[in-house]
Amino acid sequence: MTELLSAGLITAFMAGLLGGGHCIGMCGGIVSALSFALPPSRRHPLRIAALMLTYNLGRITSYTLAGMLIGGLGQLLIGEIKAITQLLSWLAVVMLVLMAFYVGQWWTGLTRVEALGKYLWRYLEPLGRKLMPVQNPGQALLIGLIWGWLPCGLVYSMLLLALSSGSSFNGGLLMLAFGLGTLPTLLATGAAARQLTSLLRQPVWRQISAFLLLGFAGWLAWPLIN
Asked: DSSP class of residue 153?
């Protein structure tokens, strides 16, 4: 389990990092809103940075909480039954492969998985809208806590990994690693964000990211084979 967890932590971080294009598509709108919510007279770089940091703190906190809940559920349901644990681990590998296919634009069927969370999201999304426009870090933190539950195939693939992690602590740790991997993309603002978005949408970068994700899926699968 230790070897699998180590591989899982690195894989989760890299999945967040390499899935940056997907993150921009899912959260780009709210990030732009945070960047330009303040009136011009108050649009100081430090104020914008505070909004960005607190929003992402809330978002990653929700990922971590979801990982803890799912990891604890997995521990409760499967206990020490190795066969079920391995099955869930293989499902996490398959989801990562599907994510690679999505990032590389080879097959976009993963978007159907995102529909699974739409029922919860239709209750949460209006709460987030009520907090707009964001004027202070407290509002940004609350929006981040809500937006962390946005239906996302990449998040769901990592939650499957958390489900097979063996404990609530391990599940939370995996989702924390994933959330930290998404930070570089979502912290970029202004001109840097436009340049980064342009780069991540380039076909060459998409293909490189997809093959790297496939490589990490293979690395994650290796302990399961041996």
From this structure: H
pLDDT tens digits for 97-138? 988 898 888 987 777 777 778 888 888 888 888 888 888 889
CB 159 within 8 A of CB 175: yes
SS (H, E, C) 138-196: HHHHHHHHHHCCCCCHHHHHHHHHHHCCCCHHHHHHHHHHHHHHHHHHHHCCHHHHHHH
Q: Is 189 left (phi over 0), alpha (psi -120 to 50) or beta?
A: beta
Q: Is the omega angle on the peptide bond into residue 151 within 30 degrees of 0, that is, cis?
A: no
- In this prediction the pTM is 0.86
Give the model confidence (pLDDT) of 176-212 as tens digits: 999 999 988 888 754 466 666 667 677 888 899 889 9
How is the chain split into domains, by residue range?
2-225
Q: Is 81 exposed, middle or buried (0-12, 13-18, 19+ CB in 10 A)?
A: exposed
